[in-house]
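Revision sheet: structure tokens.
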Amino acid sequence: MFRFLVRRILGALIILLIISAVTFWLFYAIPRDPATMSCGKNCTPDMLAQIRKNLGIDHPVPVQYWEWLKGVFVGRDYVGFGHCDAPCLGYSFANREPVLGTIMDRLPLTLSLAFGSAVVFLVFGVGAGMLAAVKQGKWQDKLASSASLLGSSLQIYFVGYLAMYLFVAKLGILDNPSYTPLTQDPIAWASGLLLPWLVLAIIFTANYTRMARSQLVEQLSEDYVRTARAKGLSARNVFFRFAWRGAMGPIVTVFGIDLGTLIGGAIITEYTFSLQGIGRLAVDSVDKSDLPMVLGVTLLSAGAIVFFNIIVDAVYALIDPRIRLA
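Predicted:
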């Protein structure tokens, strides 16, 4: 297992290095004047000159990228703006603060939103899929399939505003969406994010219901499952010991990708509920043409997806030891 994880981690580091190089080239080589774009709306000639010097516009793009990459490991000084401690993902000249500091301020909200909604859609989505598979062809199966079809056709912004009107403004049974740090007040943290969790989970619950049902129906029809039944094992034992374990692979894979994507920013959800997370930061940075911040958020999103792919590989190795040799 250790060698398996080491190979996966080394491969992930190479992938992140390639992503950072390509992203840097897209943001700093293609624009005619990245310094002007990074300067922001309240740009002055002196500030623009400082940004040109800090970005090294006069140097070739590979040299600019090397200077940025060194800053990730040893930090970097930005003339007129200050020092950026390692790991330095750049400096937001528009906000006048290091990129990583801003990201870390927004990250706890996005993590709370992602993991909280993940618990909801895993429990309800996989649970409904299991029920539909066991009751295949019965009313429970038809109800779960119809509900998943309806849920997958809904849009978060529509459901979000409707839910706020009904449960917050009209009935008053839920708190207005907000964010309180978990360490400060766990009850306020949960109550402020409960509505966004439920709304964000609707789309994912529908997808996981369909996926869990299809995988379990396929596994229940396999020869080894029928053999286990013929040997006299109970239906519950056959379901959880054989069919459920065989259906876990695709569910784990999709869950890892979905969770990494959510941590990269649930843009529509954060905008719908006016939450200041990574998704909102990404959109605001694009609107301000804050290239260093856009680069930092892009790398965070890529890193989250790569990280959870490693977790998925580790879980796969636990489920099926043969994968450790791959």
